[in-house]
Amino acid sequence: MIDLYTWSTPNGRKVSIALEELGLPYTVHAIDITKDQQFAPDFLKVSPNNKIPAIVDRDNGLSLMESGAILTYLADKTGRLLPASGEKRYRTLEWLMWQIGGPGPTLGQVHAYCKFNKGKAPFAEERLMKEAMRLYKVFDSRLADHEYLADDYSIADVAAWPWVSRFEWHSVDLNQFPNVLRWYLAIAARPATARGYSVPVDTGSIPLP
Ligand SMILES: N[C@@H](CCC(=O)N[C@@H](CS)C(=O)NCC(=O)O)C(=O)O
Q: Are residues 71 and 92 located together in one domain of the fold?
């Protein structure tokens, strides 16, 4: 049994989608980051960086923060969504880390500056939107000749998908990125994605372009 500490955000949904996909039993603990629950002392014991998601595996007592580490752990625990060794493992980790270092932080800042505080910092808005579009182009090129980011469906896709599901927040028209659109719709159609998307709060159906 896994204890999942999460909220209805892209980083949180990565882990609930993975848990659903892997069929692992889990208990959800909602950490409402709009009410600063991420700063509660009890939560800091599992997430010393004050952020969701985090997990505790009751099988062995291991607690983990950081979505990339959690996804890697869950994949290794089950032997799915990440090859055990060799080039395919590193290719998967490469695109997982690309997501965590690139689209994740960039799109998070796009939401902060361009959606919620539009007009306050034109330089930042322009710089972030330019970088977001560059990353979408990289994404689209990769998917032009690969069905998924690392060939087979993997934790790299699970990490990237919830951020793309916020395409309306970052005002990106997915029709401009046909390979990303094809990939996005294929993953949206997976039953595990729909189940994981509504954890811990059902915010409505998956956005479709
Ligand atoms: N690098 C971290 C990022 C986690 C993160 O930024 N979580 C956000 C929600 S998507 C959060 O907890 N924000 C609360 C805060 O910043 O106070 C990961 O990949 O898990």
A: no
Q: What is the pLDDT of residues 78-118, one digit of tens each?
A: 999 999 999 999 999 999 999 999 999 999 999 999 999 99
Ligand 1 contact via 72 beta carbon (within 6 Å): no
Report the number of distinct structural domains present in the chain.
2
Of 3, 14, 15, 11, nearest to 33 (Cα)?
A: 11
The answer, yes or no, to whether any atom of ligand 1 lies below 6 A from the CB of 47, is no
67 lines ligand 1 (CB under 6 A): yes
pTM for the model: 0.97
d(CA 21, CA 70): 14
Residue of 14, 39, 51 to mutate, ligand 1, most atoms within 8 A of C-beta = 51
Segments forming the whole domain that contains residue 168: 86-190
Instruction: Report the distance separating Cα 9 and Cα 183, nearest Å.
Output: 20
Could you tell me if 93 and 21 lie in one domain? no
Residue 151's pLDDT band (boundaries 50, 70, 90)? confident
For residue 51, report the distance from its CA to the centre of ligand 1, in Å: 4
